[in-house]
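Weekly puzzle thread! Below is a chain. First person to post its structure in C-alpha cell form gets bragging rights.
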Amino acid sequence: MPEAGGPVAILRISDTESTVPLDEITIDRFLAEARAAGLEEFCVYCNGEEVESPGDLLAIENAIYVVAPPEEDLPDDEDEDGHWPEDAPSA
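Winning reply:
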C-alpha cells in the first residue's frame, strides 16, 4: 500500500489499475508485473508516450504507466468526463 500522502503513480496492466508508491516505478517492477500477466515481450508507456529504453524511464508523480504487449494500441486519452474508453458509462 502506498504511504498516506506519499508520492504515487498509476500502473495499468491487463485491464488492472493500481496506485503504487513512486519509488516502485522501476524496470524491475514492470518486469515482474509483465511476467505475472504472462507477457514475454512488452512496452511501457508513460502518460501515453512510449518509454523507448530502460534509461528513459522516469518516475513521475501522478503519471499513468501502462505495461502492454508491443502490438497493442493504447486507448485514446480520457474523455471530457475523465473516463477512459473502457470505463465510460454506457448510454
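Puzzle host: Confirmed. Bonus trivia for everyone else. DSSP finds one helix and five strands in the chain.
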